């Protein structure tokens, strides 16, 4: 993990300017001190300003604003740095939660204090041996992420526990298998629910049908691949479960009103 002030002159990579689409394999949390700015995350533009928090999770794509000056603190963290129990408690992989958070004054003060404590521990490499330094970092990071997770969950509607559990299992199964399994019946059978029960809990949690939820995840991955890679359209389709390129193009256009090639051109 790393935590540091944001440098407006920094490049994401030496060969990649900040204002192109990036796909990351680590967490990025930006606690902003300036703004306003617009930041694209998974093809949604978010307007953020001082005091806001942007949380980009592994696998998501994002793009910095060309003309905005990013000021504040940025935390980057590789998956695997925290133990599994902490990962679950902090909702590190709750992709359904909004990436933009607007803490109230008291929450923002507490978040900034936790971030500052984490930064001090990160920079203090002299007073503890490496093993203890790493352990202290994990504790400080956990404290910061627990506050952040509480903030991210604050806008969630609280579903009934049984339905929440069923939807969580479905969401995790789709995240794991969407590239090869687009069948509502197959998910219902694998999870031990009837199609009717699955439809009820998914609609209660998202307002969508299970099929719409699956298709939305497939489309998101296709968009990510089109925007971030040079894979031919046929290979993008194959990567999300469409061995026939024509079927993929038809599916993509039905859900986006845009042909895959046109979408790629718009975001490159």
Give structural notes.
There is one protein chain. The protein has 268 residues and is of the alpha+beta class. It folds into two domains: 2-153, Jelly Rolls; 161-267, Homeodomain-like (Arc Repressor Mutant, subunit A, Orthogonal Bundle). It contains ten helices and nine strands. The chain has helices spanning 84-90, 105-123, 130-153, 161-177, 184-191, 195-206, 210-228, 233-239, 245-256, 260-267; strands at residues 2-5, 22-23, 27-32, 37-41, 44-48, 53-56, 61-63, 72-77, 100-101. The strands form two sheets. A five-stranded antiparallel sheet has the order 1-8-3-6-9, with helices on one face. The chain has a four-stranded antiparallel sheet with strand order 2-7-4-5, with no helix packed on it. Strand 4 and strand 5 form a beta hairpin. Helix 4 crosses helix 6 (195-206). The protein is globular and about 60 Å long. The model is unreliable at 157-162 (pLDDT under 50). This is Transcriptional regulator. Pfam families: AraC_binding (PF02311), HTH_18 (PF12833). One of its GO terms (molecular function) is DNA-binding transcription factor activity. InterPro entries: AraC-bd, Homeodomain-like_sf, HTH-like, HTH_AraC.
Summarize the topology.
Layout lengths: L1 E4 L16 E2 L3 E6 L4 E5 L2 E5 L4 E4 L4 E3 L8 E6 L6 H7 L9 E2 L3 H19 L6 H24 L7 H17 L6 H8 L3 H12 L3 H19 L4 H7 L5 H12 L3 H8 L1
Antiparallel strand pairs: 1-8, 2-7, 3-6, 3-8, 4-5, 4-7, 6-9
InterPro entries: AraC-bd, Homeodomain-like_sf, HTH-like, HTH_AraC
Organism: Streptomyces gancidicus BKS 13-15
Protein name: Transcriptional regulator
